[in-house]
């Protein structure tokens, strides 16, 4: 195995609060171990176009508290092709990069895995996505900040819902994954939560609404995007049709969930696994995602990390039922 002299770092896919803390951790720990480090802008797009620059300790000063990503991010169709990946590899070689740290989600690691098999370049991944849809880590970078943003927003919605005696359908993000909806629904005291992992039974939702205390002045139904019963507008339409007496409103929280200052938990997670990524590369690891499971560092092969059967704790849904009396 060739000695690593220069690490390339990039962010890819949807941005997530805490990505900057992760970039900082990778850059500073690479320098600590006397390695050179280069930033690659806009993920795989920048790898292909050669948008690559050398970073020093000052390049990452004053960013740990900032949302978004100073390296910018993108979704690259060209990287999905063998031709695009060949150009990417040539650009890395031209810039003297002999190892990579990829900060992103399941898509980014799917690409990294293919790339790592096609070319002799070690790649480690840091889970950066608000969705928390990766195996091999209890939490992804950005999830904690995002769920706190959601809870803050739903608390505000609750104020106006209470004042007007309204029912709100609140839609949160999480492509094919209900983990944002599940936790925030509990934290915000939702009457019901609809997530893609459990069969959406609108009849059960109606029963819950009917059985619920009649003198409740506000009701919140949390809906994860991409559920089988349709989006919040479709569910809202059906509820309005069935319960014309409810004053129903729909709120799609959208991209505010991706922004803002990262929480302390996200900064610490990003810092810990950022250092572990550099140390892992130096120890000869490759094609793995670095995460934390039960407070211990864990390296998980990409193919396992990106598996889409994230287990939902059924007990969480039961808790919502019990507590929504
Ligand atoms: N099958 C694949 N082959 C090669 N590259 C891929 C593949 N799937 C995803 N990628 C790359 O990873 C990028 C980010 O993936 P995406 O799913 O958008 O975000 P995330 O990494 O946050 O899940 C894609 O734009 C693409 O460039
Ligand atoms: O930014 P876009 O293109 O609107 O994408 C929205 C999607 O990105 C996310 O915010 C984050 O997903 P990824 O981290 O996988 O990119 C999803 O929750 C959402 O479905
Ligand atoms: Mg993803």
TrEMBL record:
Q: Name one Pfam family in it.
A: PFK
Specify the Phosphofructokinase domain's residue ranges: 6-280
- Please tell me which top-level EC class this enzyme sits in: transferase
**So what does this thing catalyse?**
beta-D-fructose 6-phosphate + ATP = beta-D-fructose 1,6-bisphosphate + ADP + H(+)
In terms of InterPro entries, this protein maps to: ATP_PFK, ATP_PFK_prok-type, PFKA_ATP_prok, Phosphofructokinase_CS, Phosphofructokinase_dom, PKF_sf
Superkingdom field:
Bacteria
Pathway where it operates: Carbohydrate degradation; glycolysis; D-glyceraldehyde 3-phosphate and glycerone phosphate from D-glucose: step 3/4
Where in or outside the cell it occurs: the entry states:
Cytoplasm
Q: Which GO terms describe its biological process?
A: canonical glycolysis; fructose 1,6-bisphosphate metabolic process; fructose 6-phosphate metabolic process
The active site consists of 131 (proton acceptor)
MF (Gene Ontology): 6-phosphofructokinase activity; AMP binding; ATP binding; fructose-6-phosphate binding; identical protein binding; metal ion binding; monosaccharide binding
**Residues annotated to bind substrate:** 129-131, 166, 173-175, 225, 249, 255-258
Required co-factor(s) are: Mg(2+)
Which SUPFAM superfamilies does this one have? Phosphofructokinase
Keyword Transit peptide part of the UniProt annotation: no
One Gene Ontology term, aspect cellular component: 6-phosphofructokinase complex
Under Enzyme Commission nomenclature, its number is 2.7.1.11
User: What are the binding positions for ATP in this chain?
Assistant: 14, 75-76, 105-108
Q: What is its main location?
A: cytoplasm
Keywords attached to this Swiss-Prot or TrEMBL record, sorted alphabetically, are: Allosteric enzyme, ATP-binding, Cytoplasm, Glycolysis, Kinase, Magnesium, Metal-binding, Nucleotide-binding, Transferase
- Residues bound to Mg(2+) are 106
Name the family the entry cites: Belongs to the phosphofructokinase type A (PFKA) family. ATP-dependent PFK group I subfamily. Prokaryotic clade 'B1' sub-subfamily.
Q: State whether it acts alone or in a complex, and with which partners, per the record.
A: Homotetramer.
Primary role: Catalyzes the phosphorylation of D-fructose 6-phosphate to fructose 1,6-bisphosphate by ATP, the first committing step of glycolysis.
User: What name appears for this protein in its UniProt entry?
Assistant: ATP-dependent 6-phosphofructokinase
- Origin species, per record, is Mucilaginibacter mali
What's the encoding gene here?
pfkA
